[in-house]
Design a protein that fits this description.
This protein is an alpha+beta fold. Helices cover about 30% and strands about 30% of the residues. It is elongated, with a radius of gyration of 20 Å.
């Protein structure tokens, strides 16, 4: 029988209100191992304990940052003989990962259905095997594993959301929508406000297909997700690899005309020549000074050291 463990982060935004219901749901299933992760730095030790207990399905009730930490520790030499499956419950602010490969509906009810079905030998969920986005900031260091990365204007937009949108009380997808609307308004009108979104970041994007040259970029994003929230999926183009990327040069040309086609992943023929580029690759090297947002967590690159992005590891997710 599959042995299931639940890792929940009581400090994740959505979990702050729902932990009593999650604890009640976990208590209803005697075979479920429930670990409340008060400190994400304890993730490695928690996973070592679950490996010793021969857990083969890990349910994560948390935000994207905690899911990233679990994926990172699992893929960076955990003690599992066989990599366990992962099920994600939306417990954070925006929950991009859960929106694509997670369990739908109320988290406590989803946990009840999952555990009940497993104990009865009933399959109610599908499994999807997905590549995971890996980021290595310095040679020799263990990579960080997650699903969505953005920098330049994406970083400034996230900062605007934290400073100006979340204090208004907006949560979850509404907060993401309001932050996106604020960022886009500033971009298309040229109004900078206290967070300077409308300026270029000098970086080198090396896709291995041509000699890289440093250029000014408004935006760079990469992901292994197949859908985002609110119907937005700003990735298109062809390529052999599983890593999707999109870049926008600075200054952005014809931004008003490009905005909707880019957000829907349906570019117009003229957009490539105007600096709106997207495709797929196996590896990308970024040399930049701008902070990187990776699954909601902020990372700062080392000056002059390329950040290497790959998507050569895979994880099995349970999704419904």
């Amino acid at each position: 029988m599959t042995r299931i463990a639940l890792i929940s982060n009581p400090r994740s935004q959505r979990n702050k209100q729902r932990m009593p219901a999650m604890r009640d749901a976990a208590a209803r299933h005697a075979d479920l191992l429930h670990v409340e992760l008060d400190d994400v730095q304890a993730t490695a030790q928690v996973l070592r304990d679950l490996a010793r207990r021969e857990v083969d399905l890990i349910v994560v009730s948390a935000g994207d940052g905690t899911v990233q930490k679990v994926l990172t520790e699992l893929l960076n030499g955990s003690e599992f003989n066989r990599l366990p499956g992962v099920a994600v419950l939306p417990g954070g602010m925006t929950n991009l990962i859960a929106a694509d490969v997670g369990l739908r509906g109320d988290p406590a009810q989803s946990l009840d259905r999952l555990c009940g079905a497993r104990s009865n030998g009933v399959r109610i969920h599908e499994t999807v095997v997905r590549p995971v986005l890996s980021m290595q900031r310095t040679p020799g260091e263990p990579p960080v594993h997650g699903m969505f990365l953005g920098t330049a204007a994406f970083y400034h937009g996230i900062m605007a959301a934290r400073d100006e949108v979340h204090p208004l009380g907006a949560k979850h997808h509404l907060a993401a929508a309001m932050a996106l609307a604020l960022a886009l308004f500033r971009l298309v009108t040229g109004w900078r406000g206290p967070n300077m979104l409308l300026h270029g970041e000098r970086m080198t994007v090396d896709l291995g297909d041509a000699p890289p040259q440093p250029c000014d970029y408004l935006l760079f994003m990469a992901t292994t997700l197949e859908r985002l929230i609110l119907g937005v999926m700003p990735f298109w183009g062809e390529g052999a690899g599983p890593l999707r990327y999109t870049s926008v040069g600075f200054p952005p040309r014809s931004l008003w005309r490009a905005l909707i086609p880019a957000m829907r992943g349906r570019p117009k023929p003229w957009m490539g020549a105007c600096g709106y580029l997207s495709g797929r690759t196996d590896e990308c090297r970024l040399t930049l000074d701008s902070p990187i947002v990776f699954d909601g967590e902020i990372f700062r690159p080392e000056a002059g050291v390329p950040v290497v992005l790959r998507a050569d590891r895979r994880v099995t997710f349970l999704r419904c």
